[in-house]
Structures are given as structure tokens and as C-alpha cells.
Amino acid sequence: MENSYRISNGNPVSIPSDPSDLEMRQIREKARRNFYLVESDWSQLPDNGLTSAKKDEWKTYRQELRDLDTSDPENITWPTKPE
To answer: Which of 5, 10, 58, 71 has CB 3.0 to 4.6 Å from 43, enough for a Cys bridge?
Structure first.
């Protein structure tokens, strides 16, 4: 079977021949996103010890995770986790 490709950011990217491959990658990336959300739950607790500015950074990060477009799992731009 011949592979199909598309160009993304000037680079060839393989297009899966079986749509279920793409669907599985989308599911994995959504699971990864959900893991990052769970991993950062602590940041929104009232007694977390963060300043309000830091808490807002975490809140923004978490919203960016929720808004993440996983329709193209080869080209996801993950938000930067606050330090």
C-alpha cells in the first residue's frame, strides 16, 4: 500500500490510509490533554499557596488545554505549562 503525504510547515507529513489510525491518534492526544488538566487541578484549589497572578497563569494554561484543537494530531501546538 502506498503512503499519502501532505505538506505542513514545509515538511512532508504522512496521512494515515486507515481513518481509524487518525481517530486513534486524536483519542491519544485528547487523553494527553486530559492528563495535563488533571495534573494541574491542584493549581485551582483555594489553599494551593500560589499568588493570584500565578493562579491566573495556571487558569489560562488550563483554558488553552481545553481549547486545544486535536483534529490534526500531527500539528498540535501545546500550551506552555507555567513554572
So the answer is: 58
